[in-house]
Amino acid sequence: MARCLVLAQRGERAVMPNPMVGAVLVHEGRILAEGYHHYFGGPHAEVDCLNNVSPSDLSLLPESTLYVSLEPCSHFGKTPPCANLILEKKIKHVVVACLDANPLVAGKGLALLQNSGVEVQFGVLEKEARTLNKRFFTNQEKKRPYIILKWAQSADGFIASESKAPIAISNEPTQLLNHLWRSQEAAIAVGVNTVLQDNPSLTTRLVEGPNPARVIYDPNGSLDKDAYCIFNEEAVTLHVGKAENLTNWSEVMNYLWQKKQISSVIIEGGSKTLQYFIDNELWEEVRMITNEKLFLNKGYAAPKFQIPTESRIEHLEECTIRYVERFQ
Ligand code: AOF
Ligand code: ZN
What we know:
Blueprint: H1 2-8, E1 22-27, E2 30-36, H2 45-51, E3 65-68, H3 82-88, E4 93-96, H4 108-115, E5 119-122, H5 126-132, H6 134-142, E6 146-154, E7 158-160, H7 172-184, E8 187-191, H8 192-198, E9 213-218, E10 237-241, H9 249-260, E11 264-267, H10 271-279, E12 285-291, E13 300-301, E14 312-316, E15 319-325
Residues 18-19, 21, 37, 44-46, 70, 72-73, 77-79, 82, 100, 102, 105 line the site of ligand AOF.
C-alpha cells in the first residue's frame, strides 16, 4: 500500500480535481504490475495496473491480490466502473486504503465487491491515503475548496506599515517558499482592499510552476479593471461579488468549488479577510510567517489567531514559519 501511495503521487497536478490513486497487483510476494491515475479524465489506477500485466501472467489473476489506495469506483463516469473490471478479471482479493468520498461511489464500490464474493481488506494506511488526497476529500465532504490561510507578520504583530509604500516582511527564502506554495494550489484569493492597497500580481515567479487562478472578492464591484496587475494576462482571474450574488467569503468558497471546480485556495489577505476565515473556522491549514527581527511599532495588525502549542515550526534565517494542519 505504501508503494500505491508513491505511485499515486506521480499524478499530482495532472489529475486535479480528481484524487491521486495508485494500484499494485501482487502474486505470492511478486509484483505483477503497478499503475496509477495519470491525468484527469484518463484511465483509473486499477485499469492502468491491469493493463500493465504481462500476457504470461494473466492466468495468475484469480490467485493475486490487488492493492489500491482508494475504494474502486462503482459509477460510470468518464470511464467504466473499476469494481466491475475487478470482477471481470476474477480477482478475489482486494486491499483498499480508504473509502471514496464521492457520493456516486462512497461505499458502493466496496459493497459491490464484497457482495460478489471478493475478499476485501479495508483501512490499510487509511490516514496516509486520506492525507495524500486532503484536497479531494475536503471538496467531496465539505463541498468547497481546501483552504490554506497564509500571512507574514512582523515580530510585533503587524502585516503592513501604515504608509502606502509596501514593505517586505518575509525574507528571500520565505518568499521563494511562498511562490512554491502558490504553484501547488488551484487558486489564490484576496479581498478587494488588498488589490487597492498593494496592487499585487499573485503569480508564481520565483520558482518554476503553474500560476494559480486569482480570485478577488469585491462585494460592491468597486474595482476598476484596467488599473490593477491582477487583471493582466499572466493568469486566469475571477473577479466575483455582486453579479454572482455572493454576500460573504463562505459563499465565495462554495461557489469556487461548486461552479468552478477549484479544489484548493490560498487566502493571502488582508487581515480582515483572514480574520473572517479564522472566526468562521473556515480553513484546513494556517501557514504563518513571522520575521523575528522586524519591529514596525504600528501599522495594520495581523489577524488574531491562537497558534496551538503543538504546531510545527520551521526556521529560515530571521523568519519562522508556523504550520497548523487540521485535516482529518
Ligand atoms: C478509482 N480509481 O484511480 C480514481 C478514482 O470522471 P471519472 O470517471 O474519472 O471519475 C472520477 C471519480 O472517480 C473521482 O471523483 C473519484 O470518485 C473516483 N476516482 N476511482 O476507482 C482511480 N482516480
Ligand atoms: Zn475507477
